[in-house]
Amino acid sequence: MSWNYADLTKKASMVGGPEAYVELLIESGRRSGRKEMLPAVLLATCVGYGIFKVVDHYKKEKKVADTFTENAKQELIKGMTECNRNNANHENNNGEAMEKANSTSYILKRLMGKESSHVDFD
Fold first, then answer.
1. CB 106 within 8 A of CB 75
2. Looking at the domain assignment, is residue 118 inside a domain?
3. 70 within domain boundaries
4. Which residues in the chain show pLDDT less than 50?
5. d(CA 49, CA 58)
6. Sign of the four-CA dihedral 80, 84, 90, 95
7. Is residue 120 domain-resident?
8. Per residue in 55-73, pLDDT tens?
9. pTM, whole model, 2 decimals?
10. ∠ CA(68), CA(119), CA(84), 5° rounding?
11. Using N-to-C axis directions, what is the helix angle for 104-112 and 95-102, rounded to 10°?
């Protein structure tokens, strides 16, 4: 017949005493916990990296869009300033030419680099 206390005492004496046996049990638990946590740590790392890449991608897209918007704004201001200058200098020009120079679609076509008379924003 085996007693639990006797088995525990025998195991403790085989590893160098009760203190050493307790330390062995704690270290064994730590190693086991590390192995169990490895998939969770790897998953968290991958998710974090993925989130970083997505945020970085959208920041770059926003920067490009902001740059385009700023360039478009400057081009529109430049075009409107030129039209105002042309109006002041050439008040007696043909009405059709002045209408074309002052039209917003003309400025937008020039900005977008389109030659046709119809501007399609889609």
1. no
2. no
3. yes
4. 1, 92, 116-122
5. 14
6. positive
7. no
8. 999 999 999 888 988 888 8
9. 0.41
10. 75
11. 60
Domain count, the chain: 1
Matching residue, tokens 């403790």: 12
b vs e for 59-91, b when ≥16 Cβ sit within 10 Å of the residue's Cβ?
A: eeeeeeeeeeeeeeeeeeeebeeebeeeeeeee
Whether 31 is covered by a domain: the verdict is yes
Full domain range(s) for residue 9: 4-112
Do the beta carbons of residue 73 and residue 87 sit within 8 Å?
Answer: no
Q: What percent of the chain has pLDDT over 90?
A: 16
What pLDDT score was predicted for residue 54?
94
CA–CA gap between residue 114 and residue 49 (Å, rounded) = 42
Read off the DSSP letter of residue 114. Answer: -
d(CA 10, CA 29): 20
Using the structure block, give the residue that is written with the tokens 């917003």.
Answer: 104
